[in-house]
Amino acid sequence: MDRPTLYIANKNYSSWSFRPWMALTGAGVDFEEVLIPFDYPGGNPDIKAISPTGRVPLLKHGVLKIWESLAIIEYVAELYPDAGLLPRDRAGRALARSVSMEMLSSFRALRSACPMNIRRPKGRIALPDGVDADIGRIETIWHDLLQQSGGPFLFGAFSGADGMFAPVVNRFDIYDLVSRNDTLAYMETMKAHPAWRKWEEAARAEPWIVPEDEV
Domains of the chain (ranges plus CATH)? Predict the structure, then answer.
């Protein structure tokens, strides 16, 4: 089978890139990584040259191109059904898709006020309306899934759903947004994962600074 190539952007800031990278790496999928850094304000033409949307992440497999983080995870789950990117039971897969899609389409207040930033020193900021509601909903999702699965990850073993929520773990951590014990325990589990540590190490070594994401 041809080795897929995952195109990503800056590891310090790119939450959309972090999701499929964390999912695929955490599941042990072999892929080639190509990083194309942001080039503000006009965008990097190298990204536009490979991506039909002009954005990353993008997965290239042979002549096929797949964009959007959840679509990438779903495609690779079909390529490697034993990798554990989706739960094995049908009900679990449906629930994983539901919460992953909610993560993809929701929580705009949190994402806007608290951009992902691996290097940011931990500290609180003033939160606009809507952020507390987003935090509460995410904590409820995590609590319910962890109670049902027994943990330590959302569906027991690491899965693509954990990858989808990885940027939120960073946001909750660096902006000091949460205090529930089960939330903090899940966050520590994620941050201790070898894939997370590999991404974090690379992010901290990057030279690029994006002022828009330095809150």
Answer: 5-83 (3.40.30.10), 90-198 (1.20.1050.10)
